[in-house]
Design a protein that fits this description.
The complex is a heterodimer of chains A (about 350) and B (about 270).
Chain A: E1 13-17, H1 21-32, E2 36-40, H2 49-52, E3 56-57, H3 59-63, H4 68-88, E4 94-95, E5 99-103, H5 108-122, H6 126-129, E6 130-133, E7 148-151, E8 155-157, H7 159-173, E9 175-177, E10 184-185, E11 188-189, E12 192-193, E13 196-199, E14 213-223, E15 232-236, E16 241-246, E17 251-255, H8 269-282, E18 290-301, E19 308-312, E20 315-319, H9 325-337, H10 344-350
Parallel strand pairs in A: 1-2, 1-13, 2-9, 5-15, 13-20
Antiparallel strand pairs in A: 3-8, 4-8, 5-7, 6-7, 10-11, 11-12, 14-17, 14-18, 15-16, 16-17, 19-20
Helix pairs in contact in A: 1-7, 1-9, 4-9
Chain B: E1 2-4, E2 7-9, E3 13-16, H1 23-33, E4 37-41, H2 42-46, H3 53-64, E5 72-76, H4 83-97, E6 101-104, E7 107-109, E8 114-115, H5 117-129, E9 133-138, H6 142-150, E10 157-158, H7 172-181, E11 188-190, H8 196-204, E12 209-212, H9 214-217, H10 222-242, H11 262-267
Parallel strand pairs in B: 3-4, 3-12, 4-5, 6-9, 9-10, 11-12
Antiparallel strand pairs in B: 1-2, 7-8
Helix pairs in contact in B: 1-10, 4-5, 8-10
Classes of the chains: A alpha+beta (about 350), B alpha/beta (about 270).
Chain lengths: ~350, ~270
């Protein structure tokens, strides 16, 4: 990626279709680079899967069922997030103190399988980024769970706050069209002319991207005053992958299921029972928690679960970030913006250009 | 060739579609396995629907394959706990996949996923009456297997070990008994395989096929492991057909000693 002077693209008209994490970040970075940005997003109810996401930046834990490419993009994103949050200059909750992987004693087989896969995939980097703790003391309330694997470099961001901040900055510095993009083509959206179009519609772009399909995810938000966990927790179980993500003020996100379906209807009793009983088995304090929300959504996935950046003249499609939206978005968007010779990293270093428009 | 449910199959490796890192890796693994029977969970993987057109077409593609071997979808009722649930899901699967095959799974214990034998027999009886070709996932209990046959099942799928444990054949004696007592019933060892040697062992015992999922999906390299299982299953079958020697309690020289020149004997 060349760091062409920002002046080259200053004032250029850019359209971004879709304001999930991918679209919002693309639009905001283009805005920071001095472009005239037009965002097309019809959804006022915030139904995109970026709102359901837990905002985990977990390149190691995700490596269990992904590959080196996702891992490297993930690490790159983890290093970009702090400068994004800083440049947005709005309150965004984030934490960089890692993930604790645990299991119940009878499920130690599932735990060992996870450790084994990570050791294999990380090779020599395993000991630098992971630590096996026979008796962990990081989370005193989870002491009963035995051996834990501590993934030191993982982080999280509050996905709602990130999106809200991006949208606020975009509504201040760009043109927001509350409308569906009925037609998208090279340099055109709904008949309007642009220098470049970014298609970040997620699943709504399924017709234009072969193999793109939805994978349903479900997540529960609770308020649990009796639970005091600060790090992200992943519970290894032979059949479920369950995580608990602490947010501010004793709020916790508990997820997540993976179902091959584009159904975004309400959560089933089975999923609810599985997730909540898993949380309760980790910490009995969850029994008294109040359920704040039961959210479901369908994430856009490709057949090989790799994100895609598809360039043609005047049109770039970014999609397929699947369950890794926040983990991959900064790195993927930075790569995609290379089409316009926008260097995202140096923009984040240089600071804000929005006031120049 | 394996004749199962009036279908001739060249492959004796039945494979599952869950737990892979991605649909692409699943497809490559199934191709490496050269499996002709592919089992799909309606409830666990597809939430009982087929609204996910891409994933759906991807699975259906297996049926249309014209590259030599035809593949067959074996829908399963994983996640059902009662006969009633399983029957409802089986009826849905028949419409969705356009097949009367059903891998009948009725779980009695959530942690071990051990089948509930009582509900299983009830469900099998009803589904056979409704024209299904029932592949019941059962334990290695001889009496249960006979009950399943008496209600009309023509195939049995006893476990090697509980699902996902990878422990191999934990009760070879019970499995040997099943094979001896039910010589003419197609028997498929389903679940519990951890490594290719486990599958080879089942095939050497004379089982007709092996069904597995986790051991391939959770291997470090699923595609290579699928091929390893394929080779082991073929080797085990070939060994069974070849007829192995009978184990002896004492050493028995392959080359007779009588007639060996004395100066050679001296050296020993």
């Amino acid at each position: 990626m060349s760091s062409t002077p920002v002046g080259n693209i200053r004032g250029k008209k850019i359209a971004v279709v879709g304001a999930g994490i991918c679209g919002s970040l693309t639009a905001w970075l283009a805005q920071q680079a001095g472009c005239e940005v037009h965002v097309f997003e019809p959804d006022r109810d915030k139904k995109s899967c970026s709102f359901t996401a837990a905002g985990m930046l977990a390149p190691m834990a995700e490596l269990e069922s992904s590959d080196d490419n996702i891992y490297r993009l993930g690490l790159q994103s983890v290093s970009l997030w702090p400068s994004i949050i800083k440049a947005l200059e709005l309150p965004i909750f984030s934490r960089h103190d890692g993930t604790l992987v645990v299991s119940h004693r009878q499920d130690v087989g599932a735990f060992n399988q996870f450790v084994n896969v990570l050791k294999n995939k990380l090779g020599e980097q395993f000991s630098a980024s992971c630590e096996l703790l026979r008796e962990q003391n990081l989370e005193p309330e989870l002491k009963n769970l035995g051996t834990a694997l501590y993934l030191k470099k993982e982080a999280q961001v509050d996905s709602h706050q990130v999106l809200a901040a991006l949208h606020k900055r975009l509504q201040q510095g760009s043109h927001w069209h509350w409308q569906r993009a009925e037609s998208i083509s090279s340099q055109q959206v709904n008949g309007l002319e642009f220098s470049w179009v970014f298609d970040c519609r997620g699943l709504a772009a399924a017709q234009d991207i072969p193999g793109l399909h939805g994978v349903r995810g479900e997540v529960i938000t609770v308020h649990a005053p009796q639970v005091n966990i600060t790090r992200m927790v992943r519970v290894m179980h032979p059949r479920y992958k369950i995580y608990i993500v602490p947010r501010e003020h004793n709020r916790y996100l508990i997820g997540a299921t993976e179902i091959q379906s584009e159904d975004t209807g309400p959560m089933s009793v089975r999923s609810t029972l599985e997730l909540l009983s898993a949380a309760f088995s980790v910490h009995s304090g969850f029994a008294e928690a109040r359920i704040l929300a039961l959210d479901t959504n369908a994430r856009p996935a490709t057949l090989d679960h790799q994100p895609i950046i598809n360039h043609q003249f005047g049109l770039t499609r970014i999609n397929g970030l699947y369950r890794h939206g926040y983990l991959l978005a900064p790195a993927v968007v930075a790569k995609a913006l290379g089409a316009l010779a926008i260097d995202a990293a140096s923009i984040l270093k240089q600071g804000v250009y929005a006031d120049c428009i | 060739m394996l004749n199962i449910a009036d279908t001739l199959l060249q492959s004796r490796f039945f494979i599952g579609t869950a737990l892979y890192d991605s649909p692409a890796i699943m497809q490559q693994s199934i191709e490496a396995a050269e499996s002709q029977v592919v089992t799909v969970s309606l409830r666990r993987q597809m939430a009982g629907g087929s609204d996910n057109q891409v994933f759906w077409k991807f699975l259906q593609g297996f049926q249309d394959e014209n590259t030599g071997r035809k593949r067959h979808i074996l829908p399963n009722t994983a996640g059902c706990h009662t006969a009633k649930e399983a029957i409802t899901l089986a009826l849905m699967a028949r419409e969705l996949f356009n097949t009367n095959w059903i891998k009948l799974e009725v779980i009695g214990d959530d942690y071990t996923l051990q089948p509930d034998p009582f509900e299983l027999v009830d469900a099998a009886q009803e589904l056979v009456a409704q024209g299904f070709e029932v592949f019941p996932y059962c334990t290695d209990d001889l009496v249960l297997c006979e009950k399943l046959l008496s209600v009309g099942c023509k195939i049995l799928m006893p476990w090697g070990a509980p699902i996902g444990t990878g422990k191999g054949l934990i009760n070879p004696y019970a499995l040997e008994t099943l094979r001896q007592r039910l010589p003419n019933v197609p028997l498929v060892v389903d679940a519990g395989m951890g490594s290719p040697s486990h599958a080879a062992q089942a095939m050497e015992m004379g089982f007709d096929a092996v069904l597995l999922n986790t051991a391939v999906a959770k291997a470090q390299d699923s595609v290579a492991m699928a091929r390893a299982f394929k080779l082991a299953i073929e080797a085990g079958r070939l060994a069974f057909e070849a007829g192995g020697m009978v184990q002896q309690d004492r050493a028995h020289a392959s080359t007779p000693v009588v007639g060996t020149p004395f100066w050679h004997n001296h050296d020993c």
